[in-house]
From TrEMBL:
Source superkingdom: Bacteria
Pfam families: YceI
PANTHER family, per the entry: PROTEIN YCEI
Domain spans labelled Lipid/polyisoprenoid-binding YceI-like: 32-200
Gene3D superfamilies named among the record's database cross-references: Lipid/polyisoprenoid-binding, YceI-like
SMART domains, per database record: YceI
SUPFAM superfamilies reported in the protein's UniProt record: YceI-like
InterPro entries named among the record's database cross-references: Lipid/polyisoprenoid-bd_YceI, TTHA0802/YceI-like_sf
Protein name: YceI family protein
């Protein structure tokens, strides 16, 4: 009986060790990077009947998990968040209209979350830069759409850079384009999100 108990314990220890060592390469191969709010920029641009406009996101956060051990990097996860009321144009009245249109009292954040990577390819043969098309859910003002997000991915030793732009329509997210001066100034439905972000 003692032999069987000792043998069973030995097998259990061996199994635990095997599982531990089997998992080590996975944990080492996947690297997690956090968005650095103090670097880079996220900007929204658009038009109106009076002039073009732009707003910059002052509060952004997110994380990306990469496996860079293969021939091409693999993006395991990506989530990107902008605090809706951190969008600033430098004009208080315009910001107020923006927050009203986005219903920021109810919907605090704008969020993109990765579902899958459609394509990834090196920009040049010897570069650490890649052209990526990621499919994910974009949620604005409580409405969620699945979109393709194209961007350039640059991988350095201690950081990752994501750069790209994406045209959107406000009405696709049930947002009525803001108006000003009793409706005499109307914002165009089409906007563009431009981002140049640093992840560490």
């Amino acid at each position: 009986m003692q032999y069987h108990t000792t043998h069973r314990q030995s097998l259990l220890k061996a199994a635990i060790l095997w599982i531990t060592f089997a998992l080590v390469p996975l944990s080492l191969s996947a690297q997690n990077f956090k968005l650095n709010n103090g670097e880079g920029e996220v900007m929204v641009t658009g038009t109106s009947t009076l002039h073009d406009w732009e707003e910059v996101a002052e509060q952004k956060s997110g994380s990306i998990t990469l496996d860079n051990t293969g021939e091409l990097p693999k993006i395991n996860s990506l989530k990107f968040t902008v605090e809706a009321e951190s969008l600033k144009s430098g004009k208080g009245a315009m910001d107020k209209n923006t927050y009203k249109a986005l219903e920021t009292k109810k919907y605090k954040q704008i969020v993109f979350e990765l579902k899958s990577v459609k394509s990834i390819s090196p920009i040049t043969a010897t570069s650490d830069r890649y052209r990526v098309v990621a499919t994910g859910n974009l949620t604005i003002a409580g409405s969620t759409n699945t979109i393709d997000l194209p961007f350039n991915l640059t991988i350095k030793e201690d950081k990752v850079l994501l750069e790209g732009k994406k045209p959107l329509k406000m009405t696709d997210y049930n947002i009525e384009p803001p108006k000003a001066l009793l409706g005499t100034i109307t914002t165009g439905d089409e906007i563009e999100v431009l981002f140049n972000t640093v992840w560490k």
